[in-house]
Amino acid sequence: MSTTTSRQNLRHHLRVPAACPAVLRLETPAKVQIRNISRAGVMVSCERELADLLSADQKTMIRHEPTTLEIEFDLRELARGSTFVPPDSAEAAFRIAAVVAHTCRQSRDEYHVGLSYLRLTTEQQDLLDEFIEAKKGRRP
User: Fold this and answer.
1) pLDDT tens-digit readout, 82-109
2) 76 and 53 in contact (C-beta within 8 Å)?
3) Which of 19, 33, 38, 56 has its CA 20 to 30 Å from the CA of residue 94?
4) Which contacts (CB < 8 Å, 24+ apart) does range 7-14 have?
5) Which residues of the chain have pLDDT under 70?
6) CB of 43 within 8 A of CB of 95?
7) CB within 8 A of 113, min separation 6: which ones?
8) What 3-state DSSP class applies to 33?
């Protein structure tokens, strides 16, 4: 099955503003800042060098299979200042496989990178749904 026929329109998922540090697991881990999150993916902010690296991976895909990476963040950090109270356990530490959906230049030194999750556990999906529901209509 090709990725184009199996891919759903991810814009159907509500995105909520979010702000917390995250790490992209590449050959060398890269620190980024989460800007918004949905049940389908996450948007992060990074510097040009990282955006160029991720864009280059997209342009040189072999057989149109995107390079996967992992993003790590802590839902407890993400939930600071919101009404959502995540579990105080290892469940709040997310490590999710994802692919780069797009990159977009925001300013001279800032780029936004959209990541689409490849798979979430049921527990991760439930926690994200609860977080998004609590954040609806609120600013970070």
Assistant:
1) 888 888 778 889 999 999 988 888 888 8
2) no
3) 56
4) 10/38, 10/40, 10/41, 10/101, 10/116, 13/38, 13/39, 13/40, 13/41, 14/38, 14/39, 14/132, 14/136
5) 1-12, 56-67, 137-140
6) no
7) 32, 43, 44, 45, 46, 50, 51, 54, 100, 102, 103, 104
8) strand
Residue 57 near residue 63, CB atoms below 8 Å: no
Token output for 81: 């200042």
Tokens of residue 13, six digits: 């998922």
What single letter denotes the amino acid at residue 135? Answer: K
What separation in angstroms does the CA of 58 have from each of 23, 64, 78, 100, 119? 19, 9, 28, 7, 19
* Residues found in the chain: 140
The single-letter DSSP state of residue 120 is -
Helices (runs of H) and strands (runs of E) counted in the chain: 4, 6
Strand ranges inside the chain, DSSP E: 16-25, 30-37, 41-46, 68-74, 93-105, 111-117
